[in-house]
Amino acid sequence: MKIRDAILVLLARQPSHGYQLKVDYERLTGSAPVNVGQIYTTLERLERDGLVSRDPAGNDRRVIYVLTGQGLKAALAWIEDTGTSGAQGRSAVAGKLLLAMAVPGVEIDRVIDVHRVALLDTVRATRRQARGTAGSAGPEGNLESRMIIEAEVAVIEAELRWLDLFEAELRSTRRRM
Amino acid sequence: MKIRDAILVLLARQPSHGYQLKVDYERLTGSAPVNVGQIYTTLERLERDGLVSRDPAGNDRRVIYVLTGQGLKAALAWIEDTGTSGAQGRSAVAGKLLLAMAVPGVEIDRVIDVHRVALLDTVRATRRQARGTAGSAGPEGNLESRMIIEAEVAVIEAELRWLDLFEAELRSTRRRM
DNA sequence: CATACCATGTAAGCGGTTACATGATTTT
DNA sequence: AAAATCATGTAACCGCTTACATGGTATG
């Protein structure tokens, strides 16, 4: 997800200043801390391209941005755009192991184990963190927090399943030779 | 996955020239076509940093690069590095929908459906393509091709599972209100 | 008053994409 | 001979990260 698109959607909620966009983005998507500088440079490009404009309600202290008509259109279009959904990401581990397999001398089975253990640890840590965040609303935190956790877990579990498959295919290929 | 790391691993297989690295990279990881220009600029940086050097076996036509000791070390370290495995990617759809949900006026249930249909179509198309690629070795293509397909499918299915979860949570939250 | 946080910015460098330029080699 | 591919490069721009600079505001 590009920060540019996220900014457009956040401004479709309400006019905001740069720093507020940083805070909202991190909270709503569970993202790691974003460099604020990037928000400002992106806003400049968006303004240049006519997707956002400066709200006169701003002052010396804060520069408030609002969506233009074109900007709102872009935000809503991005929400429904399915082109960037599945294909681009793939699996981080898969790419790495398919390359590693081609290197003579690499003990691929051991590398698989190393990554499996790390991914299992990450799942456990993520779930533990979820229980730790259990607070005010709902069974365990609010809807957004829960869904952020589940998105991370879902991706990691997909990679774990792929590792199992890869291992099985390797064994079966060796047996065939 | 960064192209820089992939280049190091590919050179751990064998000394290669830029164009060869492009071809190998796309074949081994199932990547979309890479801009060759980036390979050359990356090789320049790697050379500058002492991770690769020019093999005298090259000529006017081809510039052959080889790993330095430091470069080999970096390649092997990247293969075993689990730090970049799970956390960074998350889910493309999840980030989008968590933002979209916050926008007043967006019919989130319909947006969920739009993305679900697109993801299901992508899975079907990927599987169909897999059967189309059925060729020489093995039941359906070679090991690499099969695992590339499975990596794509695994990630998309994770996103589909997350969509189901998200929909269920939305319904249950509404019932609670 | 000192420290932390709010808020806006600039600079340098890597990473990636699109596009273009140039010429050699191979294929049809 | 024409067209496709091989092979190397350059330029411009966006995107992201790290780091630094500057000053206001709020809190202890």
Topology of helices and strands:
The structure is a homodimer of 177-residue chains.
Chain A: H1 3-13, E1 16-17, H2 18-29, H3 36-48, E2 52-55, E3 64-67, H4 69-80, H5 92-101, H6 108-132, H7 143-175
Antiparallel strand pairs in A: 1-3, 2-3
The structure holds a DNA duplex (28 and 28 nucleotides).
Question: In brief, what are we looking at here?
Answer:
Two copies of one chain form a homodimer. With 177 residues, chain A is mainly alpha-helical.
Question: What's the level 1 CATH class of the largest domain in chain A?
Answer: Mainly Alpha
Mean pLDDT of chain A: 91
How many strands of chain A?
3
Largest sheet of chain A: 3 strands, antiparallel
Helix content of chain A: 55-70%
Strand content of chain A: 5-15%
Radius of gyration of chain A: 22 Å
What does the overall shape of chain A look like? elongated
**Corresponding CATH architecture of the largest domain in chain A:** Orthogonal Bundle
Largest interface: A-B, 66 and 66 residues
How many independent structural domains of chain A?
2
Oligomer: homodimer
Order of helices and strands of chain A: HEHHEEHHHH
- Distance separating the two termini of chain A: 43 Å
Counting helices, strands and paired strands, the structural category of chain A is mainly alpha
CATH superfamily of the largest domain in chain A: Winged helix-like DNA-binding domain superfamily/Winged helix DNA-binding domain
Count of DSSP-assigned helices of chain A:
7
